[in-house]
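Teaching note: in complex prediction, the entire set of molecules is handled at once rather than each chain in isolation. The prompt given to students was simply: 'Predict the structure of this complex.' The entities are:
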Amino acid sequence: MSTNTLHYEGCNFFRQRLVLATLSGRSVKIKKIRSKDDDPGLKDFEASFIRLLDTLTNGSKIVVSETGTSLLYQPGILVGGSFEHDCNPQRSIGYFLEAIISLAPFTKKPITAKLRGVTNDKIDPSVDLIRLTTLPIVKKFLGTDEGVEIKINRRGAAPDGGGEVLFTCPCRQKLRPVQFIDPGKIKRIRGIAWAARVSPAVTNRMVDATRSILNKFLTDIYIYTDHVKGSQSGKSPGFGLTLVAETTNGAFLGAEQSSSAKGSGDPPTIPEDLGKETAKNLLEEIYRGGCVDTTNQSVAALFMVLGQQDVSKIQIGQLTPYSIHFLRHIKEYFQLMFKIDPVQVAEEEEDLQIGGEKLLLTCVGIGYSNVSKAIL
Amino acid sequence: MEGERTENKTYRPRAAGVKARKKKAKKGGEKDEDLTPRQRNPKAFAIQSIRKTEKTVRRTLDLKVKKQHIPFVDRTPVEPPPIIVAIVGPPKVGKTTLLKCLVKNYTRQKLSNVNGPITVVAGKQRRITFLECSNDINCMIDIGKIADLVLLMVDASFGFEMEQFEFLNICQVHGFPRIMGVLTHLDTFQENKRMRKTKKMLKNRFWTEIYQGAKLFYLSGMVYEEYQRTEIHNLCRFISVMKFRPLQWRMNHPYILADRMEDITNGESIRQNGKCDRKVCLYGYIRGTHLKNKQTIHIPGCGDFDINDIQLIPDPCPTPDKIKKRSLNEKERMVYAPMAGVGGIVYDKDAVYIDIGGRHSYNLTEDSRPSNELVGNLMETSNPIDEKMSSSKMTLFTGTEPITASKADDLMLAEDDDEDDDDEEDSNEDDDEVENEEEEDEAPPLKKNKLGKCTDESEEFAFADSDDDLEKEVVKKSLKQSRKIEHDHDSDDDSEDGSNFDQSEGESDQDIQSNEAEVDDVKDDDEGGGMGLQWKNDMVEKAAASFKARQKGKIDYRKIVYGTDIKEEEYKEEKEDELGGLFKVLKQKNIDNKNDRYSINKTDCSKFFPENPQDWSLDEVIASIKDCFITGQWSKDKDAKARLDLDDELYGDFEDLETGEKFTAEGEEEEEQEEEQEDGDNDSGDNNDDKDSTKPDNEKKKTKAEMTANERRQIRKERQKEAFDEQYDLKDESAFYDEWKADLEKQAKLNRAEFDSMPDELRIQYEGHRPGMYVRVEINDMPCEFVTNFDPIYPVILGGLQNVEGNVGFVQARFKKHRWYKKILKTRNPVIISLGWRRFQTMPLYSVQDHNFRQRLLKYTPEHLHCHAAFYGPITPQGTGLLAVESVAGREPGFRIAATGVVLELDKSLQIVKKLKLTGVPCKIYKKTAFIKGMFSSALEVAKFEGASLRTVSGLRGQIKKALRTPEGAFRATFEDKILKSDIIFVRTWCPVEVPEFYNPVTSLLLPPNQRKSWVGMRTLAQLRRDKGVRLQQNPDSLYKPVVRKNKIFKPLVIPRGLKAQLPFKAVPSELLKKKESGMKRIAVIKDKREKKIDNMMSMMQSLYSHKLQQKKLTLKQAAEKRKKQIKKDDKKREQRQKELKKEIFKHIGRNEKKKF
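The expected output is the structure of the full assembly:
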């Protein structure tokens, strides 16, 4: 067949490229993966990600060169179903889960994935953040609340992990177009302060510090404390905080921080600092605003593209560089461009202080349909 | 009489008084006229019978629900492409004649030859593409996929032929287009009655095939080799008003019916290699849905290609402008048929072709088509555009020296140096823009910088204000095209630009090459004292605005996202460094730009870490987001307080039922002093009997004080009931359906409106090319046969493929042999399948699904049942119809469509199994355990099958237990009973079958015209054998032989002695009671010599005697035979005698009788 291969260089945006390749059915070749590093080639977590893709799909062909610096991926058909995967502890489960979420609606069988590894770390969005901010977006596009769930069976902090997460998602033939252009006002702030293998007082210290900042803005703040112990607490000590601001129209803006990993060489984290830092991150997120927070811009954009041939619109804050690259990749894979307009502020609203400039992402879906799912 | 009448008083109703009042009250109270009959006479409408009522209610509901269809978003384009009308029928039925007549009717123009699609303007809003379908099944399949309306022609003197039925079946599979029957050759009937009968018969047959009441046209005869004018006219009217349903496949896939093909390969490469791959341009209207650039397409009969480029081309056959008039004038009746060689001008990207010969050439002077002007200008130009570019001059300020392009470049360089110390973002943007401009080769990039020189602030301002170049270009074009369309899209962005346009329009008489928009920007700002002053006046404000804009980071997002990436460019440049051409310098770039997270080998992470977060301890910063929270200020239309005020003005006070709070309008505030607090129903009812409370506004007449607690409760209950009803009861049955429909309608409206105001060039980028646009599609790597063997009679379809559809995999389909097809289909025999856009040959495996979802292989398709077919083929969305033919070559008699089906599932591997029975024999049998050998060859194999269920021939069930050491492959098994040594043991296993990975697209378009109908592809084994004359070597073992059954000899019944002794006499079997002539066998008799002699003697005598007897018998027999013969002889003699005697007698009798007469 004549579908031509896409060529890329470097390991950045590795997931985007492979996920989009899987969805679009185009093969992709990535070269020069850390070719000039002291430790060239694919890292363990990327290999783990490839293995995950392999379990998710049927008939994919993955060829990695001997040095590991180039990769050819010919996607197969998304299968899904229930499976388990040991995520490499170099990256947190969020790294893998983000990709699974963007593939999950298009599988043959509904996904029930048991992922083991690091649940929270400093780099990737944690499982909590995904549960609180990404899933509402997925639900909007699926048009259902049923079956979309993340259950954290065990927590595992950064270096060694040992956490376990259960992710379930139904599959669909088609996604629905979404017009979400008014986030409304933030009505409450919720959060989870978690701690594993450290003193339970840490959680309360984080909560107090956070409240000291956020109380100026809103009184409806409730931060759950989740101190896990025993078998549920994973292999390494750590603590962290995830905050989510919920608006009147059902938009969720999230921010999070977690303690620096044991043995990472970073100075030890103080719970109060972490709490304040997270609160500030949340405020930053609120300043950027939109119906979708910075972490989930790409997921929302992807599902807009994969909808039916209808116009989808979503208001977002400023595009992150990651999302910008994602939009570029979408153009390469699906030949689809987004219309990105700054939101026109109505005259009577001009004096409202609602943070930074908002953007309106508009696109016509490509009429994507799930070819894996069987009909009777 | 007359007098009497006049004496009578006329009736005068009472105008006042009691009676009048009564009457008035009655009239006012119940207006009888206003009542419905049902209200006036309720008894007549009462339910008489429950059954009957139930039936009627059910019926009405049924009818209502029957009307409902699953709604879908209406995606039909505003300006639709021409509808495709295909004319189909067997040869010699009059297809070409009809087509010519139709075209003549529409355009008053006679076609000499019919080649390829012919597009005509049929009305103010309708264009039609006519297409003649040849009799090739390839052609029929392709046309069945794209035709909107089919004129099915039938020779009435002959009746329906196989082709018509085949075509109808093809249509059914690929989405049913509209079909109209046309009966011809009606003038061949001599008798009127026979004609009527035939018409009726054909009509009925046609109706059963399509639907009851399908339109069938009669063309009664020919006049001068044409059909009658009135009849054709009527047919045209039917075509013109035809409505079409959207079809699933076509709604989701773009397609183009190419009406023109052009080979634009480099002549030199053709000269060097005549068979080199060609670069081809195909032209046509986009139909179906949006077609994107670089999309993969499939050309049926040719293969898959990636679109190299698409260009929008002015419509060669446009519908006339919307003017209020009834019919088209002569000029607007256009025909476009490049392959048939009619029509006027033909547009191309780089050439214009004018048909000089035709009377109907394109009207060049028409104002409505600006492209003519453009083309005219292009034709007039003598210098190439780059030369023009370099020599072009431009005046920025009045009275200044004109600037040439070279000067501009110098200026720009100088400018860049100045701006180096600008903040990062802006410079980036700047670079970006410059690059783009250079790429476009059109807009001299000086103006922005020139403007930027004025003041610092205004520079910022300019950047903030400027649109990207593309948009401007577009504006320019649209300006040129029609002065009516103005800056709509621009003016809402920034009113400044828009106003400039207004002013510029008048003065800008410059031509294409000038970049008016921006130049005028500058001009207006600097021109004349007043203007300049004005600009200076609000400088502070502008500066503030620009600052604000910069704060906000007002950037052109489209360019940021989709423009060229500077970082990547940098990377590429740096890569080039080499030492002496041999060694490459490895740079540790990563150290240099450590903060650059987005270079190619950085961490892939979706989380965003703000690079320079704001200081959230500052009050201003905190204030900047204070309205994001519900505690902050709301916008006017949503602010609760503002809306409350508004509500109060309208409705006055109300009570919040949930919280029990009360809100009152200002006027009534004093009343509310003694406010009551209500938590639930009961306490409010008990305590607050006399206190006033709120009421709905319709009961305002009664003062609050007058209301009792009961009344208040009543009111509240009513309100609650209303709310409940609204949610559940009062909803119409169709509320859900209506809501759904309304949602989709809203979506459709949004789809239409979203990009409506955009110019086409921009819109295409977001949406793709809309259906209805006329485009030129460039395709590389086209096989040269496509060009050399091009035959316009065969339709060239460019079918767009969605993303995954370019891949191949295993397709599983529900499949049924067509009931009219004579043979059944064999597994693994190649068939040609038409699926989606494609026609391809593949080798399907047929299977059925068992109850445990096992796919069991079948050798042949069932005769009248559905089965599954699994084949290797293109991934096509589920639910797509498919049809199979065994061969497309030649015209063998009979119905050619072998099977039809629908795609169920797609995958990259399949699990189809066939049954395999392994047999073994017992080598040792214990009670219920037996050792079985001969089934497996090793202990490992046995281990694999441990626990598998066994079965003997006699039906005993068992299980494999464990392997034995010797003999190899033997195992222990248990059964439900003792088995026999003679039993054969089976184990039933399922053996996976591979689906052959064979996918061979039918390349009928690449064959030379005379071989088109003989595409063969892979042959079946039987065909191969037949062609090569190879006889089938049959395994003698698998031949059927007559079954020889040995007579079963049963062993005699033996009853043990003990048992026999106990048996009652009655139960003893009779043969047991018989005395055995035993002794002889049991006692050996030894005879002495004498006895032997006697015995010998006796036996000799006996044999002698028996011999004698035999002789006697023989002689007796001979004598008897002799006697028999003798008797026969005598009988014969006697008969002879009697015969003669009788003869004599009858002679005498005859004579006597003669004498008598």
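Point out the following to students. Chain B touches chain A through 86 residues (CB under 8 Å). The mean pLDDT of chain B is 77.
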